[in-house]
Amino acid sequence: MTIRQGPAMTEKGPDAPLYTPGPLHNSRHFLRIQNGNRASMLFLVISEPRPEPPSSVASQRKIYWDWVAPLLASGEVRSVHAKVGRGAVALFDVPSNERLHQRLNEWADIIPARFEVHALIDPDAALAFLNKS
Fold this sequence. Notes:
Elements: E1 3-4, E2 32-33, E3 38-39, E4 41-49, H1 58-74, E5 77-82, E6 88-94, H2 97-110, E7 113-120, H3 123-132
Antiparallel strand pairs: 1-2, 2-3, 4-6, 4-7, 5-6
């Protein structure tokens, strides 16, 4: 799998640069996975729900699992796990920051929470970067 950003997205071949940074604060420059031409950004999201009695939000937790099921089926969420106690951890694979923003707002509408968001890179891309130096 080859990942390119910004202007390098149009280059092909083994000698094309792996990573070419775009403008720093322009969210329109996102990563593109070359096989399948699907845009992809990986984010690990950890939720910390508001402190409420668990029994008072049991129905909302069921709604959350119904909400996330089609995202898992489509691959937009690669995996999701309930945390011990309360909350969840999800790995999102989205085309843009705007899509992640949309999904986190949907999630918070179901279960109000604080979200810790970590941007990730694919392991193959990380190894390819290390092997180029």
